[in-house]
Amino acid sequence: MNRRRKKPKADMTQSVKQKLSQFDWHSYVQKVRELWTRLPKFHQRALTALVVVVALLLFVPLPSPSSSDSAPALNQRVEVSINAQGLSEQTISGQVALKSKAWKEYQVKSGDTLSQVFRNNGLPLSDLNALVRVEGADKPLSYIKKGQLVRFKLAADGSLDILQLDKGSHSVMFFRLSDGGFGRSK
Fold first, then answer.
1. DSSP secondary structure string, 62-99?
2. H helix or E strand, kind and range, residue 176
3. Example GO molecular function term (predicted)?
4. How far is residue 184's CA from residue 176's CA, in Å, rounded to a whole number?
5. pTM for this model (two decimals)
6. Phi, psi angle pair for 29, to nearest 5°
7. What is the pLDDT of residues 61-111, one digit of tens each?
8. In angstroms, rounded to a whole number, what is the distance separating the alpha carbons of residues 22 and 1?
């Protein structure tokens, strides 16, 4: 059971009119004029200009954005072209792929250094520098020997993709990472 008493609804327009009629407009205007005359002429002019500018900005309509420049609505369908061909099936037109699917091998000769091996096979020396950074403590790149087998594969751009150094019973492999650097197998 609700024991609250309903308040009588007052007419809002009547109450606003009543409040405005009680307000003493004449004394308020006199106070504003008195404050205005105390201001220096420069400030009076600046305030007058400022009031005009603000009034213009309030009443001048802003240009509506054109429909051609705006982005599509959230629920609007947009046509998107998709290449449904698999990556392995795609060919780059006008470009011959340099990638070899077969490994290339080089047998280290007496007095060869790894930089000479790279030069003899047309491999970029920048890749050699990147390999040396991840060489490891056992230094397999620094200590190559006569008769050792160096195997490598090239990437599509002609840079080194995989390098394998065979050392008797085991081998060390260096491979290109997605960031362009190299990683090493254990």
1. PPPPPTTTSPPPTT---------S-TTT---TT-----
2. strand 170-176
3. peptidoglycan binding
4. 9
5. 0.45
6. -65, -40
7. 877 766 555 555 677 787 877 766 665 455 544 334 444 467 888 888 888
8. 41
